[in-house]
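**User:**
Everyone, produce one record:

**Assistant:**
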Amino acid sequence: MSAKIPEKDWHSMVVVGRVARAHGRRGEVVIDPETDFPERRFTRGSILYAEAQIGLREFEIGAVRFQGGRPVLAFQGIESMSQAEALAGYELRIPESEQHALPEDVYYINELVGCEVRTLDGEAVGTVVEVQGVAGASCLLVRNPDGRDEVDIPLAGPICVRVDTVERVVVIDPPVGLLDVNRRGSR
């Protein structure tokens, strides 16, 4: 376990899971996955990164199994319950370049957060601060330009008519009243 990626890259890395707790006496940990592809992401030999008090740490997966839909991982060099317990709460990330390719019109959350949202006529709605829900029923939480209000915008083709993750913009064609009905009060 050694830091191979400079710490400054930590914030550009993508969250794929969190260590929930130790499991058993041999240093295994249960993971709360934050990926749609846990079987592909958590495989033997894969490298995950965590930010610890001593800096960025690299963890190589030595063994993996799934229990109740959650990955149970054994990391190389973590061999006892106390070592595993010390990992509880660690956020696990990968470099963005290691994300799996997605089909057209499917996006990673990190590709959408930070995108500017505007209407077809160019009116600024705000910036995506969060994606909520699950695939097929997701909403963009958009904070308006002055930062006081937020609005939920369904991530649906008829509403989000153009998503450009390179230009970092989402163009919407909201039904009449959607932006008012889905507005969350002043913060």
